[in-house]
C-alpha cells in the first residue's frame, strides 16, 4: 500500500508547459520573429529558465516578455486537468492516501 503520492504539477496534472510554448511562439511570430523550437524550449524550461527569459527579453524587450507571462498566468486557469491524474487523485482520496504537489516553477 502506498503511504503518500506526490504529483508533479507542470506536464503531469496540467500541461502548462505546452500552453506556454504556444503563447511564446504566438508572441514571437506576431512580432515578425522566428518561433523557438521544441528542443530549445524543453532544454530551457524547469527551474528558473534563465536562458529562455533572457532570450525573450533580448528579442522582444521587457514589456513584451512580461506580456507573455501575464497571458500565460491569466489563461492557464482554463486548462483541463489530466483525466488519468484526476482519477488517481480520486482513488487516493477515497483510500485516505495523502497527496502533495511538487513543482520546480517559481
TrEMBL record:
Gene3D superfamilies: HAD superfamily/HAD-like (3.40.50.1000), Putative phosphatase, domain 2 (1.10.150.240)
Organism: Staphylococcus gallinarum
Stated name of the protein: Phosphatase phosphohexomutase
Pfam families: HAD_2 (PF13419)
